[in-house]
Amino acid sequence: MNITKISILIKKTSLVFDKISNQLLTAYDLTGSQFKILMVLMHAPEGSVRQIDIENKFAMTNPTVTGLVHKLEAKDLVKRMPHPEDKRSKVLALTDRAMAMKEELLALADNLEQQMTRNLNDDEREQLASLLLKML
User: Fold this and answer.
1) pTM
2) pLDDT by residue, tens only, the chain of 136 residues
3) Closest CA to 49 of 60, 64, 38
4) Is the CB of residue 32 less than 8 Å from the CB of residue 18?
5) CB 38 within 8 A of CB 72
6) Pairing of the two strands 90-94 and 49-50
7) Which of 8, 29, 85, 98 is an S-S bond match for 94, by CB 3.0 to 4.6 Å?
């Protein structure tokens, strides 16, 4: 087996990412998938993210995202609110508890990014991002 195959390297990198993120997130009782949803909400204008947006962004199924949102609601980190323009729809929002953790969680995300790219210089990071986006 050729370990320089791009697909294998991407998978191995993903596993390393999951391992590091799980170690960092254990203290917050969060999974990587729950954390991704929180990051989307923290970076988006309030009231602008629907569940379907999460599904599309991460190529997740509706039942998967529904389960993640339910768990985040149970942890008092996310709440569902009526959509301002479509009363049949709901938007996701951060709770006061999540907002109180926002700076700490954003710093954690930066820490994770730094750990994953610590062996790359700025040009290499830009090139890697560009290449991954091109692949996607």
Assistant:
1) 0.84
2) 556 788 889 999 999 998 999 899 999 999 999 999 999 999 999 888 999 999 999 999 999 999 999 999 999 999 999 888 877 778 999 999 999 999 999 999 999 999 999 999 999 999 999 999 999 8
3) 38
4) yes
5) yes
6) antiparallel
7) 98
Write b or e for each residue in 56-83: b if 16 or more Cβ atoms lie within 10 A of its Cβ, otherwise e: eeeebeeeebeebbebbeeeebbbeeee
Three-state SS for the chain is CCCCCHHHHHHHHHHHHHHHHHHHHHHHCCCHHHHHHHHHHHHCCCCCEEHHHHHHHHCCCHHHHHHHHHHHHHCCCEEEEECCCCCCCEEEEECHHHHHHHHHHHHHHHHHHHHHHCCCCHHHHHHHHHHHHHHC
Q: Which residue type, as a one-letter code, is found at position 119? A: N
For the chain, how far is it from start to end, CA to CA, in angstroms? 24
* Dihedral sign, Cα of residue 80, residue 90, residue 58, residue 101: negative
